[in-house]
Write a structure and sequence with these properties.
With about 350 residues, this protein is mostly helical. It contains 17 helices and no strands. Helix 2 crosses helix 6 and helix 3 packs parallel to helix 8.
């Protein structure tokens, strides 16, 4: 455990010179051989290098904020100690190496199947086994969050195996395969909407489409998920498709909370809350003579972060609202196929 922690901290502190390839190779080869404890080494590497913290203890409000615009998410990062923004360079270095080495998808598959493998082979008491599985699921979720944060959208389709192969060839549970790809699909729909001038539920057009005609919601859905939807019965034969349509299944798993939770959050209230915190921090910083240096630096750093968040929250709210109405337009068209 101590060696795993040390390796993770060294990989983060010296990411430009740290030899990641041999360590990643050792982890993958050990997992292939059934040495499950090496998942712990990878956990420390990805946690330290990505800066992402587990989100198992979020409040309901924080969960909503984590799926809002970037500025609102940063507020939660401050509270839970998530440092993904400060670790952007080391996180990107890790995932570049994972992609170059070919270990990206292999590690995801190992982690996705590890809990089931341990459950089948372990004789540990049920309480201990449940805790271990929870830890592995938390690690898998961190891995997915880190991949989405550090792999450019333009490179994601080449970096990760497609959902059908993950499920059919490597026995990954659909919920994990879809979680890996969900952000990519939603981003692609937003890109298609902008590129081809999709009309929102309010009738406005985001961009001019070739020929001047905006793309319909159906066309946007088909361009991103149509091919995948047409093949879904081949890799999910256990579902009774007489009771559930492929369109509904794909739409359900593709949606992110960002797509559907706009009305659960008030950006104006969050803006006022940030302004209040900025005022409080400035007031506290006036008493610098009675404040420890460490606390002064923390408050000053937090103040800078809050001021940066404040500048972007209004535009993030507008983007979220626009996306929300675009998603409603797509759902309105798709529901007739459910």
């Amino acid at each position: 455990q101590n060696l795993a922690q040390f390796t993770g901290r060294m990989a983060d502190a010296h990411f430009r010179r740290f030899g990641l390839r041999p360590v990643l190779s050792l982890i993958v080869k050990s997992l292939r051989a059934g040495a499950h404890e090496f998942a712990g080494v990878f956990e420390h590497i990805i946690t330290e290098m990505s800066g992402i913290r587990a989100i198992t203890n979020l409040t309901a409000r924080q969960a909503i904020m984590m799926n809002a615009g970037k500025s609102v998410r940063k507020m939660v990062y401050l509270v839970i100690g998530d440092k993904r923004l400060a670790h952007a360079l080391s996180g990107a270095t890790l995932f570049r190496e994972l992609m170059r080495s070919g270990y990206m998808s292999e590690l995801f598959i190992f982690l996705a199947n590890l809990a089931l493998s341990i459950s089948d082979s372990s004789r540990a008491p049920l309480k201990i086994l449940n805790r271990k599985c929870d830890e592995l699921f938390s690690l898998l979720h961190t891995f997915i969050q880190a991949a989405q944060a550090n792999i450019p959208i333009a490179d994601f389709a080449q970096a990760a195996l497609p959902v059908d192969r993950l499920v059919k060839e490597y026995n990954v549970e659909p919920q994990w395969a879809f979680e890996l790809w969900r952000e990519y699909w939603s981003a692609e729909m937003r890109r298609e909407w902008h590129a081809h001038g999709g009309a929102s539920a309010h009738g406005d057009v985001s961009a001019s489409a070739p020929g001047g005609a905006p793309a319909s919601a159906d066309e946007i859905y088909e361009s991103v998920l149509g091919g995948f939807r047409d093949n879904i019965k081949d890799f999910l034969p256990g579902i009774d498709w007489n009771l559930l349509t492929p369109d509904f299944y794909c739409t359900f798993w593709q949606l992110t909370l960002y797509d559907i939770d706009y009305e659960m959050l008030s950006y104006s209230e969050e803006q006022e809350s940030i302004k209040l915190r900025i005022t409080n921090n400035r007031q506290m910083l006036k008493n610098v003579d009675d404040m420890p240096t460490k606390e002064y630096r923390r408050l000053n750093s937090e103040l800078g972060t809050l001021e940066g968040i404040l500048t972007g929250i209004k535009s993030d709210g507008q983007k979220h609202k626009k996306n929300y109405h675009q998603v409603l337009e797509i759902l309105e068209k798709q529901k007739n196929k459910w």
